[in-house]
Specification:
This protein is α+β, with helices and mostly antiparallel strands and 451 residues long. The protein has 15 helices and 24 strands. Bound molecules: ligand MV4.
Length: 451
């Protein structure tokens, strides 16, 4: 096992990884930007190395600085967390060349799943159902329009280099296709320096349901059930839960097996997530694979009792999975609410400032993963997520009540947050009924009013 790990991230996920390492008896090296010298992750780690100025480009995305911090501190492995360098094949390859383990899948797996239309092809070959759409990537709007006309509207325009909704547009008619295609393509070029697109049939009111998988380097692959992440605003998830309300045991098994096939087709090891869309008739379709640990991983940990971060570390060090599929069971229901420094009154505008008063909830079945402490100054340069409140109970109904109680206890003063908004959301009858599509529609409407 590793003696020392460098965490190439910040915020609550860096704190989460540091805690896992400490419990495993592994020394931790944090990295921080000049804006994060007083950040919780910088203070909790055994050592911290400042790797550059505030802007992510200059610090948390600065591969050379991070690698020299790892080499000089004697870290044997780097955990990238999520975002930043977590799905960067160049960085994963640089780690290997420096003799440092990248705690995640192989660069080849990241690459194969990173191109979303290539990933589709791989899944078709593996017998995983995909959303009906184009086989080959396209760059020409006129050709796209021809294929879309053939497919029939509405059509979803997606970016090969995208994922998570970046460079995505719904075309509802032939008339509006070309403008939307070119808009999405320009956005993709701006964001990723790539203009390849693909098309999918648009599935109305589908649910976003993803399956957690774990795979070791010896080819043992298991799934840990699903997460329903349908409640989203502008492709930012707001609330996630497991199990999904309308996934029964038979569907769970089918989706789990498909996710395992997907992982095997990608030659995958480490923790990963296979995203599916599920339509109203409970047909499921592969959307994309995320080759990293995800924000919402705690809900899976709560119901399975499996620590995903520790498993990632053990897998990376070459250990075989200590669980077979039959060892995995799901107990009760877990829900996560993301608490962000965003002002719901101003179209969820991200905010910075000092935390003047803080009280975190606790008690049976309540978990808070956060970067907060009293007096902390939230910098304006990074993701606005401050905390994740996760609850676990025997039933969904009890979990909803527990979340309402926990959010009611939580106090964050000094900056605007979406806390009241989340409290009202989990208190609503739409949420109790599991009507995520109606919630998303409400969110859209409200946002349009503000802007
Ligand atoms: C879709 C879709 C319907 N049809 N693709 C992709 C990224 C993720 N953030 C949402 N994604 C979707 N992709 C096709 N072909 C529906 C979604 C989707 C969604 C879209 C807009 C607003 C909320 C959503 C919630 C779940 C799924």
């Amino acid at each position: 096992m590793y003696q020392k790990i460098l965490i190439a991230n910040r915020g609550e996920i860096a704190v989460r990884i540091i805690r896992a390492c400490r419990e495993m008896g592994i020394e931790t090296v944090a990295v921080c930007s000049t804006a994060d010298r007083e950040a919780l992750h910088a203070q909790l780690a055994d050592t911290c190395i400042c790797i550059g100025p505030e802007r992510p480009k200059d610090s948390y995305l600065n591969m050379e600085e991070i690698l020299s911090a790892a080499v000089s501190s004697g870290a044997q492995a780097i955990h990238p967390g999520f975002g930043f360098l977590s799905e960067n094949t160049k960085f994963a390859r640089m780690c290997i060349r420096c003799g440092i383990d990248f705690i995640g899948p192989s660069p080849e797996s990241i690459e194969r799943m990173g191109n979303k239309s290539e990933a589709r092809k791989t899944m078709i070959q593996a017998g995983v159902p995909v959303i009906p759409g184009t086989e080959e990537a396209l760059t020409d709007a006129a050709e796209g329009k021809r294929l879309a006309d053939e497919m029939g509207y509405p059509v979803m325009i997606k970016a090969c280099a995208g994922g998570g909704g970046k460079g995505m547009r719904v075309a509802r008619s032939s008339r509006e296709f070309t403008d939307l295609f070119e808009m999405a393509q320009r956005e993709t070029m701006q964001a990723f320096g790539d203009d390849k697109m693909y098309l999918e049939k648009y599935l109305e009111n589908a649910r976003h349901i993803e399956v957690q998988i774990l795979s070791d380097k010896s080819g043992n692959t298991i799934h840990l059930g699903e997460r329903d992440c349908t409640i989203q605003r502008k492709h930012q998830k707001l609330v996630e839960e497991t199990p999904a309300l309308f996934v029964d045991d038979a569907l769970r098994q089918k989706m789990g097996e498909a996710a395992v096939r997907a992982a095997k087709a990608a030659g995958y090891y480490s923790a990963g997530t296979v995203e599916f869309l599920v339509d109203k008739d409970r047909n499921f379709y592969f959307m994309e694979m995320n080759t990293r640990i995800q924000v919402e991983h705690p809900v899976t940990e709560m119901v399975t009792g499996i620590d995903l971060i520790k498993q990632m570390i053990r897998i990376s060090a070459g250990e075989t999975l200590p669980y077979r599929q039959t060892d995995v069971s799901v107990r009760g229901h877990a829900i996560e609410c993301r608490i962000s420094a965003e002002d719901p009154e101003r179209g969820f505008l991200p905010c910075a400032g000092t935390i003047t008063n803080l009280y975190l909830p606790g008690g049976n079945g309540v978990r808070v993963d956060s970067l907060l402490y009293n007096g902390y100054q939230v910098p304006p340069y990074y993701d606005s997520m401050l905390a994740k409140v996760i609850v676990h109970a025997d039933s969904r109904e009890e979990a909803v009540r527990k979340m309402r109680s926990a959010l009611g206890e939580l106090v964050i003063e000094g900056i605007p947050t979406n806390l009241d908004f989340q409290y009202n959301l989990v208190s609503s009858s739409l949420f109790r009924e599991g009507n995520a599509s109606a919630i998303n529609e409400e969110l859209e409407k409200r946002y349009r009013k503000v802007c």
